[in-house]
Amino acid sequence: MPFLTEISRIQELIYEIPIKRVMSKNLITVAPGTEICELKEVLRVNRISGAPVVEGGKLVGIVSLEDLIKALEAGEVHLPVRDRMTTGLVTVHAEESVIEAVKKFAKYEVGRLPVIDEKGELVGILTSGDITRGVLEAIGVNEHPEDERRLKKRQLFENIVSDHTSLTLKYLIKAQDFKEGGHASSRLKLTLDRMGVPKQVLRRIAIASYEAEMNLVIHTSHGGELIATIQPDVIQLHTLDDGPGIPDVEKAMQPGYSTAPHWIHELGFGAGMGLMNIKRCADEMKLESEVGVGTRLSLMIYPRLRAAESAKS
Question: Which of the chain's ends, N or C, has fewer CB atoms near its CB within 10 Å?
Fold first, then answer.
């Protein structure tokens, strides 16, 4: 059964906006050797409730106000921060979409997320408030008349006469290329927008294709293909890869389940919500996978069906 609740412009922007655009770059950090008494002054003067612990440009931990209080209660005023900081951190990547941060906030229930670059160096801090401000700013920036270069109210297929018409778009996705992750789905969205695809349909395709693309980036050794086939009555999306395969497809569809390796989680990816988000955006979805062979994902979206359902509501 299709997921009929409308996707808002805010939800769409959460997929479009990169984390580096909304994160806080004004970082207050401390070194592992900073003493607790020094940390107290850093937090007081800057009116912050915690600070990243950085060594040689690399994030090694986070120390919070709670850590400070526990140390002071124990009389450990000269204890180095390294002995009280939290390690094994949940992070996000600067180049990734804000949606990855939203997933992490929901899954781990943290108040802030350190942002790292492709070298693993700390480049920012992200809070839910940063995301809210960034989205509101983007809404203001993007409130403008439709681009006159678009095909406005016309549909591409209206001027084509044939017994069967389809347009196929293929995008090659590289494995572990997080800097380019999400670009293919953005290009697909831009193309369909210029073709006059309705906004609500476009938003679902953008979300589903993004999640499918990131699955190829994260879970495969050699990447794969994102293929969109557009017909007058249906838009089909397919991904095909030679990855490790999914041992339990039914389990993989559960929210929060992820087979991403540890180093992927360290980069801030693999929260385990991708397949569920795809399913919510599709009218039909089929996932086939064989361990050691690969995975094929297929989904269909029927623009006219959605338009009819919207008219009824």
Answer: N
- Report the sign of the C-alpha dihedral through residues 141, 145, 150, 155, in that order: positive
pLDDT in tens, the chain (313 residues): 344 445 677 777 788 889 999 999 888 999 999 999 999 999 999 988 889 999 987 889 999 889 999 999 999 999 999 999 988 888 998 988 888 888 888 778 777 889 988 888 889 999 888 888 888 888 766 544 444 444 443 455 666 677 778 899 999 999 888 778 888 998 998 899 888 888 888 889 998 999 899 888 888 888 899 999 998 889 999 998 887 888 887 777 766 555 555 544 444 444 556 787 888 889 999 999 988 888 899 999 998 765 555 545 4
Which residue ranges form the domains of the chain, and what is each CATH number?
19-140 (3.10.580.10), 162-312 (3.30.565.10)
Q: Which residue has the tokens 């993004």?
A: 210
Task: Report how far residue 36's alpha carbon sits from residue 81's, in angstroms, rounded to the nearest whole number.
Answer: 6
Q: By the 8 A CB rule, do 40 and 66 touch?
A: no
Helices (H), 47-155: 65-73, 98-108, 128-142
Q: Which residues have C-beta within 8 Å of that of residue 204, sequence separation ≥ 6?
A: 7, 281, 282, 301, 306
